[in-house]
Design brief:
alpha+beta; 3 domains; about 45% helix; cytochrome c-type biogenesis; Thioredoxin_domain; redox-active center; Antioxidant, AhpC/TSA family; oxidoreductase activity
Length: about 450
């Protein structure tokens, strides 16, 4: 009897150990590990962009870098090195290694991953979605729709011919959705494009147009992380849920779209995701004043803790960066290592540029910023550029080798200042008043034709 009990205890212990090991393995494979090796590096970071997220991966002196992505599901992404980029696909559990020569990124890049996923990388960077020529919108809708269908069928045949379901069925499902909703959006744009291309101001969409769009309006939780799908479903909600007299403001439009989604989409994951996206976009663009109805809808239908946290972060971030509030503080350094904070610039308006050396759009704004600084020389305003480069050496190299105007400081990546201003993308511009209070947390770019009139309206500037 005692021997039998000992055997049972041994069996239970062994079984539990096995279960814990399996669970630990599954948990560890839920993340994505990306490593990068660069020979003859010409930049100190690679950048991965997916959805609205930007991840800088620093490279050490040997050109090596790594990053672990946590629970992002399966997404299309772009890998940037300098101004060049390649398309990649990230899926939970992936172990990816990318190597290339920094002097010839596009010509030497090598993608390695488990399960033969190199084939997906090749597909993404070799195959291009076929555009439907804009002039074809002059056709009657049924002929245009038939042409779009042919383009979609052609792309689906190409995808099938690559036999990528043998590598990742999940990729094939997501890519099929991307193709389908890219062309569905082309159909949706017909109502706007046809009057312009055909020079027909009398055109009004008919029942066949709306019936065609409704065929694509299917709740599919497997596609809800796909940008093309979400944008299409949101536009369906606007089109069928918002009467013209009810959508006079962006907030009114958001509310009627949210009501339509809450009433018409039964799949809970799709419903919650779309409602959360709409709520976040409204808060990001217009703030948190007078949004009680939005909060009621969001609080009622969005119960997923992950989605709730994402919304709360955006809500709290806007509250910090509300116009009239004291600016969140920063600590940044000049080329000599001297530290500065917001308090050091009080007494004048401060036009802040959040940028990075690897950011192409940031560089394109520089000539406009330089011209603006020249025009406002001697006025009550300071032009301050804060570099968000992960490596200070990159910023120093550019500042010392190129004629940079204004005050140049290094802030670094992931600062509380950048987070408080919801500056997920750069360049991002901010205007503070002489007391260090926020005038505009999402200020006009230097290239904007309206920036001078905006600045000139500020009292005492």
């Amino acid at each position: 009897m005692n021997e039998m009990m000992k055997n049972n205890m041994w069996f239970k212990t062994a079984f539990l150990t096995f279960v814990f090991c399996v669970l630990g393995f599954v948990q560890s494979r839920a993340d994505i590990q990306l490593t990068v090796d660069v020979a003859n590096k010409t930049a100190s970071t690679v950048v991965v962009v997916y959805q609205t997220t930007i991840v800088e991966i620093p490279l050490d002196d040997n050109g090596h870098g790594s990053h672990t992505f946590q629970h992002i599901g399966a997404v299309h992404a772009s890998l940037f090195y300098g101004m060049d980029s390649k398309n990649i696909f990230l899926e939970d559990g992936d172990r990816i290694h990318i190597s290339f020569d920094g002097a010839d990124f596009k010509g030497t890049v090598k993608f390695e991953a488990d399960g033969g996923k190199e084939k997906i990388f090749k597909y993404l960077n070799q195959v291009t979605l076929l555009d439907v020529p804009q002039e074809k919108m002059a056709l009657p809708f049924d002929e245009y729709a038939a042409l779009v269908d042919k383009k979609e069928e052609s792309m689906m045949r190409i995808l099938k011919a690559w036999k990528l379901d043998e590598v990742s069925p999940r990729f094939v499902a997501v890519e099929t959705g991307r193709i389908r909703y890219a062309y569905a959006s082309s159909l949706m744009m017909y109502a706007v494009g046809h009057p312009f291309v055909a020079q027909d101001t009398t055109y009004r969409p008919d029942e066949a147009y709306y019936d065609t769009l409704k065929k694509y309006a299917v709740a599919d939780e497997n596609l809800v992380e796909l940008k093309e799908y979400r944008e299409y479903m949101k536009e369906i909600a606007r089109m069928f849920g918002c009467k013209k007299e009810e959508a006079k403001t962006p907030y009114d439009r958001t509310i009627c779209m949210m009501n339509y989604i809450a009433d018409h989409i039964e799949d809970d994951k799709v419903k919650q995701t779309l409602l959360n996206v709409l709520a976040i976009e409204q808060v990001e663009q217009y703030g948190i004043s007078n949004i009680d109805e939005l909060l009621n809808l969001h609080g009622t239908y969005v119960t997923d803790p992950v989605l709730q946290t994402a919304f709360k972060e955006k809500y709290d971030a806007w509250d910090l960066a509300r116009p009239g509030n004291p600016s969140p503080d920063f600590r940044a350094w000049d080329v000599d290592g001297k530290a500065y904070t917001v308090a050091d610039f009080k007494g004048k308006y401060v036009y802040i540029d959040l940028w990075a050396t690897w950011c192409g759009p940031c560089r394109r704004e520089m000539p406009f910023l330089k011209q603006l600084e020249e025009e406002y020389k001697g006025r009550n305003i300071t032009f301050l550029s804060l570099s968000t480069d992960a490596r200070k050496a990159d910023w120093l190299k550019m500042v010392k080798s190129q004629p940079m105007t204004g005050i140049q400081l290094h802030l670094g990546t992931g600062s509380r200042f950048q987070t408080a201003y919801k500056a997920d993308g750069i360049p991002h511009f901010i205007l503070l008043d002489p007391e260090g209070k926020i005038v505009n947390a999402n200020m006009l770019r230097p290239s904007s034709p309206d920036i001078r009139s905006y600045l000139d309206r500020q009292p005492g500037l």
